[in-house]
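User: I would dearly like some help making sense of a protein record. I have put the entry right below:
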Amino acid sequence: MSNTTWLDTGDQAWQLTAGSLVGLQSIPGLVVLYAGIVKRKWAINSAFMAFYAFAAVLICWVIWAYKMAFGEQWGAAPFVGTPGPILTMDDELRQTLLPTSGITTNFPMSTMVYFQFVFAAITLIILAGALLGRMNFTAWMLFVPLWLTFSYTVGAFSLWGGGFLASRGVIDYSGGYVIHVSAGTAGFVAAAWVGPRLKQDRDDFQPNNVLLTLVGAGILWTGWNGFNGGDPYAASADAGAAVLNTNIATAMSLLVWTILDIIFFKKPAVIGAVQGMITGLVAITPAAGVVAGWGAVIIGALSGSIPWVSMNIIGKKVWLFHLVDDTLGIYHTHTVAGIVGGMMVGIFATVEGSAAFGLTNPGGAIDNNWKQVWLQLVGWLFIVGLNIFMTSVICAFIKYVCRIPLRMSDEQLLIGDDAVHGEDAYAFGDVRRSILHGDTGRVPISGDGELGIIQGMARDTEPVPETQLKTESDGSD
């Protein structure tokens, strides 16, 4: 133990706990939330997109991506680190050092690498929410490592790893910009490239299991204690403040969103409450440990109202939101809410909170530092621009260079999980082929009916007539 005198067991225990909480937000949190919030025929595909991304990001992370986000600056580029593996015992056991920013911690590199991985993974999983119900799974398998490498690492290094935005004083406490504005912007751009769902799915995309959605949402909310509480990199007083502020803002946002639903739609919608919860979590993320409790209340009120207007008024009137099929409204809940929270940092950041987080900046506008507002604006403009450009390049590469379709065929879109994966989320009591035993035959399922053109089962509602299948496959929505 002589070479680990720097190890603080309290910091180590909290950091591993925080990382595990963030991991649970993805699996099972967003896995089950996605499975419940989509139509029945897309439950498996939606959950699997999240499950796959979690695994793929980890392998890329330890082989090259971690050092791109938190390693030594790559030559003269002030926005990305030098790629390389971090897989030896020497790497994993030594004290954490973020070389470009000069940050050290009292826990080992292995803990830091895992902690930062779960943030990278959830970013891709959030992004997937804009693409559910039609993205070709093979294209998604390629998109994940490419976007992680060429977009996420750049934003993370620039704001967290000691890059040019961090050195200029832009504050992103726990990922309002790096994760949420990034995922929301990239998701919207990717959705434009992939194309829309079938018209019948866009017109009717009711959740298949609201209670399952609430389970996922509850895991997401609770897991956010690790999301924001882990970013001081210590079991510190600031970690406690971040956790409390996170829950204050989230509760306020949920209540405001629900009240607006009652006023305008005459009903308190459960899915609306979930959206309000998410926007509250997103908006407090860039501010959690640098604002006071009353600042968290204000941020929660704004995150429950501004994204609500964006989604329910602007989103229904502006032509661009009709043209681009953002399945779960990720742009509204993550880009808009992330910008709201990031800009509120410029106003409500306190000198005490900034000092507790290890910053030397003189707070925000409330402490007469109006420059912070400008810095926060520069931060989100960079992240938005980065993701518009890189996401477009990646989608174009997959489509035109790799020759992989970004969107599933209309036949697959009509049937869903059974056509894409050969599985059904709710096959209780059904007589089915067993892919585990190598049976490639297809046995009709009682009560579902058999489709003549494609050997699959339409399980969302009623059997789909062959004439309708032909219409959809011809693209005449």
Remarks:
- Strands lie at 95-98, 103-108.
- Residues 269 and 381 are 33 Å apart (CA to CA).
- The first strand starts at residue 95 and ends at 98.
- Residues 26-401 form a domain with the Ammonium transporter fold fold (CATH 1.10.3430.10).
